[in-house]
Amino acid sequence: MSPPDLRRRGGAQVRRPLLIAGPLRRPLAFVAGACLLVLLALSFRYAGGTAPSGFDLAVEQWLRARVGDGHLGLLHEIGELGNQRPALVAIALACGLGYLSGRWAPLLLPAIGPPAAIILSQLLKPLVGRTINDYWALPSGHTTTVVALLTAVAVIWSHRTSRTIRVLSGLMCAGLGCVAVAMVTSMVLLGLHHASDIVAGGCLGFAVVVAVALALDHLDRPIPAGGG
Predict the structure, then answer these.
(1) What digits encode the pLDDT tens for the residues 40-78?
(2) CA 37 → CA 42, 131, 200, distances in Å?
(3) Cβ neighbours for 198, distance < 8 A, ≥ 6 positions apart
């Protein structure tokens, strides 16, 4: 039986990378499943509520002790990169990285994964019903977007199909990571989200992209030995 990353071409088997390599498939699927359980637990715990939990207050106090008010403006400006228009640009750039890889799966992953996560976050908000200042709060849509993008680009980086893709995707991961930290900090300190909203959004973004990557790998599975 052929290994999962081999395809027969002209009678010869040619190794080709999966989006998620074999040894990582089960661990990442397990982590994604755990993220969904955390999301469900938080959704039930905070359904219809408005008040912060002890965890939320502890995180806010920890951040206030380490971030001065003078930095909040800058952090908020960086965090604004998680809004809709910058996110669309980032998705397009990630799709470009996938295109450079020469395979359709790395192109489709950022085209499908982050948008699917964003849509699900918007559908979940009214179902959960947690609000802050009369706005739906859980899960955090901004966090879902950035984490989904970061996960998709990290998967592309893991291919290392060329030095160019490796460098560009690495730089994009670093940039998205900085945006995520600034955005999370500013949202908590400005009272736009509680820490539990952010955890829920991060879990959703990661789980959806991993699920899409596994599905694309399944659809892009090699032709069995002896096949056409």
Answers:
(1) 999 999 998 888 999 999 999 998 888 877 777 777 777
(2) 9, 21, 10
(3) 140, 143, 184, 187, 188
